[in-house]
Amino acid sequence: MSSAVSLQGITVRFGAVTALDGVDLEVERGTLHAVVGENGAGKTTLMRVLYGAQRPTEGTVLVEGEARRFHGSKDAIAAGVGMVSQHYAIIPELTALQNLMLGAEGGAAPSRAAARVRAQDLADRMGFAFEWDRPAQELGSAGAQKLEILKLLWREARIMILDEPTAMLSPADGDALFGSLRVLVDAGATVILVTHRLPEVIDHCSRVTVLRAGRRVADMAVADTNARELASLIVGGGDMPEGATLGLGVDGLARESVRAGAAVLSVAGLTVRDARGHEALKNASLTVRPGEVVGIAGVDGNGQRELFQAIVGAVRPTEGKVELEGKDVTFAPPAERLRLGLRLIPEDRHQEGVIEGWSLEENSALGLQRSFAEGGRIDESGRHHWAQRVADRFSTRHGGLGLPMASLSGGNQQRFVAARALEYGPRLLLAFSPTRGLDLKGTADVYDAIRARARDGMAALVVSFDLDELLAHCDRIVVLNHGRLTEPAARERDAIGREMVGA
Hints:
alpha/beta
């Protein structure tokens, strides 16, 4: 079988930092090939080289046997290479159809009717459903991710790079996506999967390449390895995180007993409307007690955002009540909830968690500004020491606290945002996909810290689209389906998965 991609001796340097050091990658045509490694291992940089978004310092790129020198992503797309990154290139104000067509119109623009027919045909091939005239901002993360994959097909990409494609999907949707990818692969497409989820590699990929610290440390047929060996290669043998689930879907980690006492969070009969005026959350009730970590499972777009927004105070419910530490905060401003100990790890760190042009030090105080104000002036020394504490908690890799947040990788930004929420005396933690983009050690560190805070009496409410993650780390799991909260009678993956899709 011929190679679709051959990267030879790829080296990328950023000043004194070597991000990739002589990396080789061979991907056979018509296969699903995984690239795995920790945050900072060089996976995304290597894929950006293939996609033309990053010029290599040294090395050769061959696509379908032809040497290429891409001067940008436009060149790569013309050569049949497409990429879906973790941060979607979707314009919220445009419709789904307009986003699909944008930048790929070619010569004469197709009629709207012809474009709609082609779009629907592509969606049907993948098993996706879209309201083409609906603004993209209403799609949710899972819908946006599916639209990004359709954009590759619209541009007739033969080589597709997918970065964490199932991060926001339910188990059923994830399985359906891989079924659709298998159809594409069988038709001759080549898919390169960047993922932290090792079961996806074992179940769906034919070959896997492991990167560590900018070097290739292994490349093998998936049939010749297993998830535990891959995990060991990723983290470096004996460096396996204590108690890490390794993305294996393990349940049954030891969980401490939940403390008795009044609920830290009480939600009663909460109804919230979305941006279109529809009831996104319907008569939802739940309590979270001191020391308890409660997971919310559900397909993306079933009311998770609206529940968190109502608890934070970003939206007002049409019915129901929210109590924090026994105090009615249903219509209280977010500042009052922060004063009572509410802390947030937001779903979208770029839109809700950081200001990328600000320094790490300035970002460390977002939401906590009053804590560093003395007589109308900023306590810069106190804020600097605080920022250092935040950066140190999860070993955020940075070049200086005065550098802009944009200088950090996505995984290190996530570490910083999670540490900020957990470091400053939380009583209630709302965590929306808290480990999105994190590697095995980062995931273990964040959940270890959540459990440590819970032992001190913190309550935590966690949304994750990785059901295995919730099973491994939460005391209870509730399900959101079409805005309604239920608690499954059995703590079993299949039973919860069925309830997630209303089966």
